[in-house]
From TrEMBL:
Organism field: Sphingosinicella rhizophila
CDD domains reported in the protein's UniProt record: PolY_Pol_IV_kappa (cd03586)
Residue ranges occupied by any UmuC domain in the UniProt entry: 13-192
Gene name as annotated: dinB
Protein name in UniProt: DNA polymerase IV
One Pfam family recorded for the sequence: IMS_C
Compartments (UniProt record): Cytoplasm
Lineage, uppermost ranks: Bacteria, Pseudomonadati, Pseudomonadota, Alphaproteobacteria, Sphingomonadales
NCBIfam families: PRK02406.1 (NF002677)
Length: 369
C-alpha cells in the first residue's frame, strides 16, 4: 500500500471543469462566433474575462489586458459578458450533479468537486459517473466539460486539466504518485509563480524533484508550507469535498467604458450594480451587516468606504441607500471614476434567522461543512 492510500480512507472524487465556459456559451448562442477567436469582456478597455480555444492558440488568456490580447490576436472578437446566461447554464449543470451526489462543492460557475464515494444512483464506479455527467451536460446544454477522477481533490483537479478540452482522465491509487512525479510543479494547487520560481532556483521543476526533497529541506525553505508540498509530492491530500462553504462576503463591480464624473450618472450606475448584486444576495438566501463601496479612479487609485448596521440590512432599498450615502461622501469626485463596486459582508444565511415565535418550533443549528 502506498503512502497516499495509507494516509486516509480511499474516496472517489470527480472534478468537473467546463471548457472555455463563458466563450463557449457565447459561441453556442451565436453561431456566427463559432470557430472564431473570441474574448468575453475587455472590448474598449479592461481585461479578458474568458477566451475561446481559438483565441488561446494565439496566447490570449483570462485576466490579460484587452490591449495586449488584441495585439497578439488582431482578429480577436470581443463579446460583452452575459452573466445571467452563464448563471442559468451553471444552474443546469449543478442540477445534473445533484442527481448523483449531495456532496458537491462548487468553486465557480463552471467547476465543482463531487464526492461520489456513495452515489445516489448506486452506480458505484466513479469513471462511469463522470462519463454519464459529461454526456448529460453535452445533451442538455450543448456544451462540453472535462473531468478528472481520482481519490483526492488535488489529483482530481490535476486530472481534469490533463485532456482538455472535452476530456476525461482517471488517476487510480496505483497511479497517483507516478502521475504527480511526471508533472511540472507549476501545475500544483498552491504553487504560484513566485513559489514556482523559488523552487526552480532550488532545482525543483517536477513532482519527482519535489519528492526527492526531505521534509526538513522543504520546511527550511518554505516554512509552514513545507509539509503541504511534502504531501503533494506523494499525492497526499486530506481536503474534503465541502458541500456548504459559508460566504464571507459577496460583491459586484463594473469598469466603465468611459471615465465618469457626473453625480447623477454615477448614482445611476451604482443603483444598477447594487440591484444586480441584491438579486444574487436574495438567490443565495444571504443577509449581512456591512455595506462596502469600492471606487477606482482614472489613475487606478482605489478608495473604499464601509458602513455597518446594528442588526442586518433588511432589503434592497436599505442596501442601496447605504451605498448611495457612501458614494455621496466622495462627491464631487476629485477625478474621474473608472470603476464602481458594492459589497455586503458580515454575512449569515437567512436560514439562520430565528423563526416566528408563534410556530413553536425548536431552531436547529445550521452546520457549515
Amino acid at each position: 500500500m502506498n503512502e497516499a492510500a495509507a494516509a486516509a480512507p480511499v474516496r472517489k472524487i470527480i472534478h468537473v471543469d467546463m471548457d472555455a465556459f463563458y466563450a463557449s456559451v457565447e459561441q453556442r448562442d451565436d453561431p456566427s462566433l463559432r470557430g472564431l477567436p473570441i474574448a468575453v469582456g475587455g472590448m474598449v478597455r479592461g481585461v479578458v474575462a474568458a477566451a475561446s480555444y481559438e483565441a488561446r492558440r494565439f496566447g490570449v488568456r483570462s485576466a490579460m489586458p484587452s490591449v495586449t490580447a488584441k495585439r497578439i490576436c488582431p482578429d480577436l472578437v470581443f463579446v460583452k459578458p452575459r452573466f445571467d446566461a452563464y448563471r442559468e447554464v451553471s444552474r443546469q449543470i449543478r442540477a445534473i450533479f445533484s442527481d448523483y451526489t449531495p456532496h458537491v462543492e462548487p468553486l465557480s460557475l463552471d467547476e465543482a468537486y463531487l464526492d461520489v464515494t456513495e452515489d445516489l444512483k448506486g452506480i458505484g464506479v466513479a469513471t462511469r459517473i463522470a462519463e454519464e455527467i459529461r454526456d448529460r451536460i453535452k445533451a442538455e446544454t450543448g456544451l462540453t466539460a472535462s473531468a478528472g477522477v481520482s481519490y483526492n481533490k488535488f489529483l482530481a483537479k490535476l486530472a481534469s486539466d490533463q485532456n482538455k478540452p472535452d476530456g476525461l482522465c482517471v488517476v487510480t491509487p496505483a497511479r497517483g504518485q507516478a502521475f504527480v512525479a511526471s508533472l511540472s510543479v507549476k501545475r500544483f494547487h498552491g504553487v504560484g509563480p513566485v513559489t514556482a520560481a523559488k523552487m526552480a532556483r532550488l532545482g525543483i521543476e517536477t513532482g519527482a524533484d519535489l519528492r526527492a526533497c526531505s521534509l526538513e529541506f522543504l520546511s527550511d525553505n518554505f516554512g509552514s508550507s513545507g509539509q503541504y508540498y511534502f504531501n503533494l509530492a506523494r499525492a497526499i491530500c486530506h481536503r474534503q469535498v465541502k458541500a456548504h462553504r459559508p460566504y464571507k462576503s459577496i460583491s459586484a463591480e463594473d469598469t466603465f467604458f468611459e471615465d465618469l464624473r457626473e453625480e447623477a450618472v454615477l448614482l445611476t450606475e451604482l443603483e444598477r450594480i447594487g440591484g444586480t448584486l441584491w438579486r444574487r444576495i436574495e438567490s443565495k438566501a444571504l443577509a449581512g451587516r456591512t455595506v462596502t463601496l469600492k471606487v477606482k479612479y482614472q489613475d487606478f487609485q482605489i478608495v473604499t468606504r464601509c458602513r455597518s448596521v446594528p442588526d442586518l440590512v433588511n432589503d434592497q432599498a436599505e442596501f442601496l441607500a447605504i451605498g448611495t450615502a457612501l458614494l455621496r461622501s466622495l462627491l464631487p469626485a476629485p477625478k474621474a471614476i473608472r470603476l464602481l463596486g458594492l459589497g455586503l459582508s458580515n454575512l449569515r444565511s437567512e436560514r439562520d434567522r430565528d423563526p416566528p415565535a408563534q410556530l413553536g418550533l425548536a431552531l436547529q443549528p445550521v452546520l457549515a461543512f
